[in-house]
Amino acid sequence: MERAQPSSDSPTRDSKSPTVLSIECLKGSSKADEWTGDMLQTGDIVEDLRIGSSIFVKSPFKNGRSGVQKILHTAFRAKDTSIFVRVRRGRDDFAELQACIVPNESAGKKQYMLRSIDDPNYAVGFLDRTESECFELQASRSARMVSALTRNRLQDGYVSYPWERRMQELLSVPNSSSFLSLLLLPKASDRAASRYNDLEDTLARANAWINSSQASGVPIVFMNIQTESLLTKISGETASSTVNAGSLSDLANLANASLYGFEDYHGVDIGVVRAVRLWYAPLGGEIPIEIKIQESDTKLGFAISRTEEGFIYISSVIDGDENAPSSRSGLSSLYKEAVAASRLLVVSRVSNQKVVPWMVSSTGAVRCFDTVSLSQKLSLHRHAKVPIFIHVLLWDRSSVSISVNQTRLRAASPPVLPLPPEVQLARHPNENQVLPLPPEAHDGGDRPETRTLERDTAGELSFRFHQFTLSSNWV
After folding, report:
1. Do 455 and 372 touch, CB atoms closer than 8 A?
2. Please, what is the end-to-end C-alpha distance for the chain in angstroms?
3. Model confidence over 16-54: pLDDT tens digits?
4. Beta strand pairing status for 345-350 and 353-354?
5. What are phi and psi of 168, to 5 degrees?
6. 430-471 confidence digits (pLDDT tens)
7. Under 8 Å CB-to-CB from 6, ≥6 apart: which residues?
8. What is the pTM of this model?
């Protein structure tokens, strides 16, 4: 009976192949240089080790990997961690590595690996293999390289960042952003506030607000708009009238809904209000102004008013009094330039606090700052002889008069954000400022001499209206 002979084409394993100490690549280098011929690779056969200047061992190694680990442990405890490794690749191809001995905590106690001196990311360990297995690994280098490329994944993580220092040093107003926005809640369509107008209505009101602001002379430009989801508890008629978001089939009904509801695990009806946040920016950025107070000052020399949209602005200044605080600070000159440019000189901050409108309630009321309380605050500055720091919105940075006093400012105004390409701007041939379209924002460029000032004295949801003339609001 004849024995079947193995085919010459099938791979055979030499059972008599000697066991050798081989390299196992644990961590790749920063540039994957372990796949080049100059660095050690998985499957390389270790020929000799030189630790410091006193230990030199050659192949074959007594007790293989475990024996070498004892040698590495002894050297590490003696603080002799410099090691030189020479390996063989194939029959007569050699490579070398200069490394240091470091603990391999993932392998257990008293286990060590070698970390490259040239690239600390590259680390190798030792493994007992037969010589034939090493040759097979060396021959499969190309296939293993492709497999490593397939398995490779980009790593991410968290890095610390000096937020406090950056917010102090790099912002024009420390710890306060230069971003301006208005949050508009959907308008209630009934007195019980159980039903709300749809999302399109909120978007239209945001559009009307910024167009009206620009038409009144506020130097701002549209930047972006987004919806914000606000959670609230609902019940009764409100819960029954909202769009239900209980299944995927209901998603189509949510496209234009400003309020929808769902039930949580405890059976509580939760409402999601879709508000709209409108982002805008000043055409020329913000500029800080310091108004110094002297003992002889009996008035500041300017009046403040508020637009229907909620912006505080300088409505008038004293002419002919060069010793007034408004004249000394350059505020009067800047006001005259704003008038010449058919713009309002809008106050954006007082004592580094933003005073622009920031929210529209579900009743349609704009939440903004009261001109009467602001006048009182400015007058208190004058009585206490404490300097006033305000910021105003610019329409064109190149038109700022050099007379504006900025000697005691903490930091310069930040760079102006570039306008998006969708914003259409028109430059008049004989003026050095940019005006937003449409041009019908001003009829002849004249502003009415008397405005109705509105004072919010009843909180967020309601307004009381008082009639003031501009002359009564001087500070």
Report:
1. yes
2. 120
3. 788 999 999 888 777 776 677 678 888 999 999 999 888
4. antiparallel
5. -80, -40
6. 333 333 434 344 444 444 444 433 433 333 333 333 333 334
7. 12
8. 0.63
